[in-house]
Amino acid sequence: MKLPDILPAPAKSNAQLKTAKWLSGEGAGSWFTIRRDMETMNLFRVTRYSDTGNFECCGIFEADRPLDPASEYLLTYPSHCQKVTVKQKDELITLRIKEKLSEADAR
């Protein structure tokens, strides 16, 4: 059985991608940035960019368990503009959108 073609991370094409993490997919992929949005431990601003660095979506997401975006983590599936899944310290953490934000809010 042939494995699907998973894309390697392309070069980061703009300043917004400086801290972004790559999530590879079959035939495509996306860059994600996750940063704590407020003092509330479980709210985060998540922004998704295309493989070429074009803005796709941004929002305030709520994590279902503690997440430290300053520590190492991996993006995994499912991850899209409504839900993002990360693996940190061998735990899967799900972030679900609470509020959609504009491209201007992503900066």
Describe this protein's structure.
With 107 residues, the protein is mostly beta strands. It has no helices and seven strands. The protein has a seven-stranded antiparallel sheet, with no helix packed on it. The protein is globular. The protein starts with 20 loop residues before the first strand and ends in a 6-residue tail after the last strand.
Order of helices and strands: EEEEEEE
What's the oligomerization state? single chain
> Segments where pLDDT lies below 50 for 5+ residues?
none
Biggest beta sheet attributes: 7 strands, antiparallel
Give the class from helix and strand content and strand pairing.
Answer: mainly beta
Average pLDDT across residues?
Answer: 90
Please give the count of helices.
Answer: 0
Portion in strands: over 45%
Q: Radius of gyration from the CA trace? A: 14 Å
Which range best describes the helical content: under 10%, 10-25%, 25-40%, 40-55%, 55-70% or over 70%? under 10%
Taken from the alpha-carbon principal axes, the silhouette is globular
Question: Mind sketching the topology for me?
Answer:
Blueprint lengths: L20 E4 L4 E8 L6 E8 L4 E9 L10 E3 L6 E6 L2 E11 L6
Antiparallel strand pairs: 1-2, 2-3, 3-4, 4-7, 5-6, 6-7
